[in-house]
Amino acid sequence: MQNTGFKEKCEVLNNLQPHLTNTSEVIKGNELVDVIQRFNNCNPAYVFLTTKETAVFLRVSPKKLEADRLHGTGPPFKKVGAKVIYCLKELLTYLDDNTRLNNCK
């Protein structure tokens, strides 16, 4: 798969309309724009996101990320003491690696 640049991915994500769920941890669509704008001119290898920021970026709930960590699935993460962080470059790679053309494995 062709590796799309970080700024291009941000532009694509910036143009997406939010698809919110009915969970108690609904994340507002404009939070995604805030996350993208904060890191737009940074090297993604040196950008680390919190669980909430990662949930906004991936459009899942923070509880989903917690469950993924527990089961060893989902995006790679790092622990710094008790804090969980996600490297933006690894998140972009995770998204590229998990692109599907259909639901067959």
Description:
- The chain is mainly α and 105 residues long.
- It has one domain (6-97): Multidrug-efflux Transporter Regulator, Chain: A, Domain 2 (Orthogonal Bundle).
- Helix content is 47%, strand content 10%.
- The chain has helices at 6-15, 29-39, 51-58, 62-71, 88-97, and strands at 48-49, 78-80, 83-87.
- The protein has a three-stranded antiparallel sheet with strand order 1-3-2.
- A hairpin with a 2-residue loop joins strand 2 (78-80) and strand 3 (83-87).
- Helix 3 (51-58) packs across helix 4.
- The two termini are 17 Å apart.
- The model is unreliable at 14-27 (pLDDT under 50).
Short description:
With 105 residues, this protein is mainly alpha-helical. It has helices spanning 6-15, 29-39, 51-58, 62-71, 88-97, and strands at residues 48-49, 78-80, 83-87. The protein is globular.
Main beta sheet: strand number and arrangement?
Answer: 3 strands, antiparallel
Dominant shape: globular
Name of the top-level CATH class: Mainly Alpha
Overall residue-averaged pLDDT value:
76
Question: How would you describe the oligomerization state of the chains in this entry?
Answer: single chain
Instruction: State the distance separating the first and last CA atoms.
Output: 17 Å
**CATH topological fold name:** Multidrug-efflux Transporter Regulator, Chain: A, Domain 2
Strand order of the largest sheet: 1-3-2
SS element count, helices:
5
Query: Structural class, from secondary structure content?
Result: mainly alpha
H/E element order: HHEHHEEH
Give a count of the beta strands, DSSP E runs of length 2 or more.
3
How many separate domains make up the residues? 1
- Please mark out the parts with pLDDT under 50 across 5 or more consecutive residues, or reply none: 14-27
Residues in β-strands, percent: 5-15%
Helical percentage: 40-55%
CATH architecture: Orthogonal Bundle
